[in-house]
């Protein structure tokens, strides 16, 4: 019976909601902490991003299933860099990239905190997705680490998804909150990056 359950879990799939790959279903592995952004939340998020997504350079710091990065690319983002630590999830992201022929997706197997500390992109990003495993309580630290003109272009948009009951999260003082909504046990927010004055 255990083998049957494992096989069923291994075949979990997410559905791309809009854009060129609309209704395509992509497999993702069943891993601890891997929790794809739900369809309803994703639809609301990308309605919020409708005016910003075309041609955007995106960074998905906890790519997991790829729900956010593939949705962004499907809707016209120019590129997306997907950071994911778990080797099995990294492999599936790469397989799905090949399946969709998504040449503008860059998959990086790395710890997000270390990646932000040890790297500097050639160009800043227009949109950043921050949706770490809820039990790790990484939101504040990751937001602080990415809060730099190296990573973010002026006016960049940052999406954060966190537990609705989490009162510990503190966004950087120079981020302006644009949207906030709660769906069940999930709170999701949209911010604009305001570059600090020199």
Structure described in brief:
This protein is of the alpha/beta class.
The largest β sheet comes out as: 7 strands, mixed
Distance between the termini: 62 Å
Overall helicity: 25-40%
Low-confidence stretches: 1-9
**Beta-strand content bin:** 25-35%
What integer value in Å does the Rg equal?
Answer: 16 Å
Shape: globular
Give the mean pLDDT: 91
The structural class is alpha/beta
Number of strands: 9
Question: Number of helical segments?
Answer: 6
Largest sheet, spatial ordering of strands = 5-4-3-6-7-9-8
Order of helices and strands: HEEHEHEHEHEHEEE
Overview of the structural elements:
The protein is α/β, with parallel strands linked by helices. Helices cover 28% and strands 28% of the residues. It has helices at residues 2-10, 39-48, 67-74, 87-100, 112-118, 139-146, and strands spanning 13-15, 25-27, 57-60, 79-84, 105-109, 125-130, 152-163, 175-183, 186-193. The chain has a 7-stranded mixed beta sheet with strand order 5-4-3-6-7-9-8, with helices on both faces. It has a two-stranded antiparallel sheet with strand order 1-2. Strand 4 (79-84), helix 4 (87-100) and strand 5 form a beta-alpha-beta unit. Helix 5 runs parallel beside helix 6 (139-146). The longest helix is centred in the middle third of the chain and has 14 residues, at 87-100. The protein is globular and about 45 Å long. The termini are far apart.
